[in-house]
Amino acid sequence: MEYVKVARSGQVPEGVVRRFFVGEVEIAVARFGGEVFASANHCTHLACLLSAGKVTEDGLLCSCHGSVFDFATGEPLSPPATEPITVYPVREEDGEILVGGVTPP
Ligand code: FES
């Protein structure tokens, strides 16, 4: 699997979610408990930007209607979303965040 650099570690501090692009693909990158997670940036409910949401202890919160998605699996933990968001594997090395498996739509 190909990993591409998306950010410097310092760009995603603890408790923060930010938007980055891998080519044309928009992803949300969040840090919780020191670990970095990457996912699609559009909520599976009505496509709000998850990068405009919040990092919570339960998962990534979509601020539009309150669905929370598991950081690791992307599964929706609360309604109204019923479909998981795509999650991507992440490596953090030498102060850089690398995301794998992102392919153009
Ligand atoms: S768009 Fe995310 S919960 Fe509705």
Could you describe the 3D structure shown?
There is one protein chain. The strands form 3 sheets. A 4-stranded antiparallel beta sheet has the order 2-3-4-8, with no helix packed on it. The mean pLDDT is 96. Helices cover 0% and strands 41% of the residues. The radius of gyration is 13 Å and the shape is globular. By secondary structure, it is mainly β. The chain contains no helices and 10 strands. The protein has a single domain (3-100), classed as Rieske Iron-sulfur Protein, CATH 2.102.10. The structure holds FE2/S2 (inorganic) cluster. Residues 43, 45-46, 48, 62, 64-67, 80-81 line the site of FE2/S2 (inorganic) cluster.
CATH superfamily: Rieske [2Fe-2S] iron-sulphur domain
Terminus-to-terminus distance: 17 Å
Round the mean pLDDT to the nearest integer and report it: 96
CATH topology: Rieske Iron-sulfur Protein
CATH class: Mainly Beta
What's the order of the H and E elements? EEEEEEEEEE
User: Unreliable segments (pLDDT under 50, ≥5 consecutive)?
Assistant: none
Number of strands: 10
Shape: globular
**How would you classify the helix and strand content by structural class?**
mainly beta
> Main β-sheet, in a few words?
4 strands, antiparallel
Question: What is the helix content?
Answer: under 10%
Q: What are the salient characteristics of this protein?
A:
mainly beta, four-stranded antiparallel sheet, 105 residues, three-stranded antiparallel sheet, Rieske Iron-sulfur Protein, binds FE2/S2 (inorganic) cluster
